[in-house]
Design brief:
By secondary structure, the chain is mainly β. The protein has strands at about 5, 10, 15-25, 30-40, 50-55, 65, 75-85, 95-110, 120-135. The relative contact order is 0.32.
């Protein structure tokens, strides 16, 4: 459970596409923001000057489904995200090894229990980090 990245794709020599899947328990209000860093392996200056991007996942692109037959109120919200970023900083090629670090921010509806007062919405953040290879289109 939680967001993840696929391998980045070299769309053109000048562009890398970062994509993946967002998911969370419960329902989401509004747009989900996924910030990410791409840090190429063996490039020391990338540790202080990474490739940076922010993908937006509009609520209309999210799907909420029931996830537990015993608890019909239990829900999972999920959707794909994608963002193209410039590749002119390090000119990464196919098979370049990178570390992709992500942070998702979503506004979540509170869980509603029958007969109890409703809590206000709240921010949910999730961070993750994965090793990937740049792939050809």
């Amino acid at each position: 459970m939680g967001p993840n990245f696929e391998d980045p794709v070299l769309v053109s020599p000048d562009t890398i596409r970062v994509k993946g899947a967002f998911d969370t328990h419960g329902s989401v209000i509004g747009t989900v923001m996924i910030g990410f860093l791409i840090i190429p392996e063996h490039i020391p200056e990338a540790l202080t000057d990474p490739i940076v991007g922010i993908a937006e996942l509009p609520n209309d692109d999210l799907e909420t489904t029931s996830c537990d037959a015993a608890d019909p109120g239990a829900r999972i919200t999920s959707g794909p995200f994608s963002k193209d970023v410039p590749n002119n900083q390090y000119n990464l090629g196919v098979d370049a090894k990178v570390r992709v670090i992500g942070l998702s921010v979503a506004v979540k509806l509170a869980d509603l229990d029958p007969g109890q007062s409703q809590d206000p919405p709240a921010f949910e953040t999730f961070t993750w980090c994965v090793n990937r290879k740049v792939k050809a289109p």
